[in-house]
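Below is how a single chain appears once it has passed through the pipeline. First comes the sequence as given, then the structure the pipeline wrote out for it. We keep one example in the README because the format questions we get most often are answered faster by looking than by reading.
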Amino acid sequence: MKTETNHLDITGAIEIIRKDLKRFDLTPHEHYDFSLLKRTVDEMGLQNVSGQFSESTFDLFYKNGFWISFNDKNGRCAALKAVRYLDQGDTPLTELWQKEQTRIYDKPNLIGNDHAPTAFDIKGMVGYSGEFVLLPEYHGTGISGNMVFLSFLLALLKYDVDWIYGLMNKNLAHSSFPNDCGYTVIEAGGTDWITPPPGIQKDDYLVAVPASRIRHRARLIATAGSMRPVAKKQHKKK
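Resulting structure:
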């Protein structure tokens, strides 16, 4: 039986995160235009949009995905985060990967079957967490985890997800970042790549969190009325 989401906890936690971001003069804005996502990522000049969020690969609109821009007081996008949603039903994530990798990279037999164990358990209404871009001047401020967790909360409100998952490289997975984001599953050997596509690392990690743990963290935040301290160093305002 699916646990009912307490919207007051979720909206309360969202408001607290928004206030924390204000300390850095950042305001989150929700978007459903994925052509704008590509233009924004291109303008930031740090990476390219992945196949998961490419309109040439998937039909993306408000019913199956959104992204957040975190704009500074001048309207510049200082960071962004995207989530794509899919109702998988009883199909495990591992089977979905087999279908999607062929679609994204236009090549069959890229991945095997020896994935991280939790990947076989991720079913139902699932959000894929990807496309996190942060300008270098905000590195080390401690706000990135709050940005990602905000996207989890919004995904829970919009799509009533059962799981949210992502994939990380080894160095990032071994840092405090996954825990700061709210991930409770961090497993090596995330994807069993036979032939990794260009730009994909073979030793990726699966990071994931069930909805119950998102609700629990939101309740703790809403009850406390504040986040833990997020600033490791002061951002130099321009």
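Residues 7-224 form a domain with the Aminopeptidase fold (CATH 3.40.630.30).

See the next section for the split statistics.
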